[in-house]
Amino acid sequence: MDTTNTTESQPSVAIVGSGPSGCYLAQFLRKQWRQSEIVIFDRLDTPYGLVRYGVAPDHPGTRAVSKQFDRLFTRDNVTFVGSTIVTSVEGSGDVTLDQLRSTFDIVVLATGLHADRTLDCLTDLPGVYGAGGLTRLINGHPDETVDGLHLGGHIVIVGHGNVAIDLLRLFLTAPEQLRELGVADDVISAITSGPVREIDIVGRSLPAAAKFDLAMIKELATLSDVRFEADMVAPADNEDPSRHDAVRMLIDSSEPSAQRIVRFHFGWEPVELDGHDTVAGITVQALDESGRTFRLETDSVCTAIGFAEDENAPLRRGDHTSAEHVDLDRGILGDSLFCAGWLRRGPRGTIPENRADARMVADTIIADFNARSTAASKPGYSALDFAHHSAAI
Q: Residue 259: left (phi > 0), alpha (psi -120 to 50), or beta?
């Protein structure tokens, strides 16, 4: 990316979404266009999205990236406007996408993916919870409440990614430690009221191919009074054995007499839930040739199988992907309309990967604008027009 200042016109930019992708994108664009007006909109009154509400509270190092974003909003011509709903339909929000496109030279959608992905076999029985909603609840997201939440003493977690391991660890963290991390008392009461004695964690992958990071498994060894078990399958000759070995070491080093137990089930997928007023059990099926099944009794099921675009979101990428000249590989949705982050490429990748994605989209935006450099610049959208929505960072 050419970061030198030029004498060319400096475009005005609206970014919808103040999570890591939106903030990284603003950083890259400001580095190129130092005189541009960049306004970052968010429906919440505080910025940073996934960094603030999606990262486990006992991982402060990951959250530290917000400090560099704090500096972003001290720069000239970079403004955060919170409590503002941007929508595709006039009259259903505070400002429409068309209004932004008519007043800014460039508009970028970086609203992420908010909804928990579901499986058809996991019905809407009470007692089934999405990991995204639970993580936001633990982090104090204003949309989430403890109403109706009951995990009980025996939990099944579906998924073997980092989010699943986060939930597993937080469910087994002592209430006083959660309180020190800033978790609200009503949330602590809700997630530890079981108290949690058994957790089964079920995933499709075998140990060597599981999606969790090695560091996440090693961190589980710091939990007290927990015994770990697993149905282990040795890795193939062409597979990296490191994840298999990490789980084996976790099992071997855990306390045989511990009162709490965690069982890893590798190579299984859910096929059915049962229960009446609430979930009572989940049946899983082996993905090997045997196709055998077994049932796990449980008080609740937590799904950690990814995220999706919320069908009720006021602004959806899917509303624009049928237009001409859409190029999601480069983040192009239309004429001077772009998308970045999870909204562009799906719910995968860490915060550093979101940075790389934002850089790529920024390069696309800069090249596109320079190709249109003969067009008259639009007046831009003053943050003062929405001063009543602005909030302190």
A: alpha
pTM above 0.85, yes or no: yes
Beta strands in the chain (DSSP E): 13-16, 38-41, 78-81, 86-87, 95-96, 106-109, 115-116, 128-130, 154-158, 198-203, 226-231, 260-266, 268-275, 279-286, 293-297, 300-303, 307-308, 332-334, 337-339
Report the first-to-last Cα separation within the chain, whole angstroms: 29
* pLDDT for residue 75: 85
DSSP string, 84-127: --EESSTTSSSEEHHHHHHH-SEEEE-----EEP--TTS---TT
Residue 365 has pLDDT above 80, yes or no: yes
Q: Quick one: tokens of 3?
A: 């970061």
Nearest alpha carbon to residue 77 among 111, 38, 19: 38
DSSP letter at 318 equals G
Do residues 159 and 199 lie in contact, with contact meaning Cβ atoms separated by under 8 Å?
no
**Hey, which residues does 39 pair with through a beta bridge?**
14, 79
CA angle in degrees (0–180, nearest 5) for 90-96-100: 150
Closest Cα to residue 195, out of 220, 229, 158, 225? 225
Task: Give the pLDDT band (50/70/90) at residue 375.
Answer: low
Residue 243: pLDDT band with limits 50, 70, 90: very high
d(CA 350, CA 62): 10
pLDDT digits (tens, 9 = 90+) for 307-363: 988 877 888 777 777 667 789 999 999 999 999 999 898 887 788 889 999 999 999
For residues 340, 341, 342, 345, the Cα torsion angle rounded to the nearest 10 degrees is 70
Query: Rounded to an integer, what distance in angstroms lies between the CA atom of residue 89 and that of residue 380?
Result: 21
